[in-house]
Amino acid sequence: MTIVTETPEDRLSQLLIELPQVPQPTGSFQPFRRHGDMIYLAGQTCEWNGRMVYSGKIGRDFDLETGQKAARICGLNLIAALRLALGGSLDGAVACIRLGGFVNADPEFPFVPKVINGASELMTEIFGPDIGPHARTAVGVATLPLNAAVEVDAIFAVR
């Protein structure tokens, strides 16, 4: 009996998920840094191929569901950067260790962690139940680069 294991690349293809181009850094940093078997991914905002999709505050300009969509775009940018860091294939990912989520939130908005679920759920969708689950921080902030609604960074263990 042969056991077939879906890889992250298989899931991307089966789910018809398109990855964006890796965003160009707007400051003095790199989109990723590899150290041994760890890849540290710089924060990615909710831009798609150079265009900010959601600019404004969650809880004032956008609702929770839109915030989750913004976080998902951040996650897709992270996955694109990870693929680049791994030489063109996500199949070298061993574990999503941690996500850090930042929400440009109205001070009265109480659901910051639920916004970041948009990125967290994507990691499990793409990487599966063994690699995708992770530790996480979700923080509401006063502003983000280019007035982005959401930014997310990540750390992955790789081979």
Gist?
The protein is α+β, with helices and mostly antiparallel strands. The chain has helices at residues 8-14, 64-85, 112-131, and strands spanning 32-35, 38-45, 47-48, 51-52, 93-104, 135-141, 150-158.
Layout of helices and strands:
Elements lengths: L7 H7 L17 E4 L2 E8 L1 E2 L2 E2 L11 H22 L7 E12 L7 H20 L3 E7 L8 E9 L1
Parallel strand pairs: 5-6
Antiparallel strand pairs: 1-2, 2-7, 3-4, 5-7
Shape: globular
Give the SSE order as H and E letters. HEEEEHEHEE
CATH superfamily: RutC-like
CATH architecture: 2-Layer Sandwich
The whole-angstrom Rg is 15 Å
Q: Determine the structural class based on helices, strands and strand pairing.
A: alpha+beta
CATH class value: Alpha Beta
CATH fold-level label: 60s Ribosomal Protein L30, Chain: A
User: How do the strands line up in the largest sheet?
Assistant: 1-2-7-5-6
Structure description:
The structure is a single chain. The chain is built from three helices and seven strands; from the N terminus they run αββββαβαββ. The protein has 159 residues and is of the alpha+beta class. It has one domain (8-158): 60s Ribosomal Protein L30, Chain: A, CATH 3.30.1330.
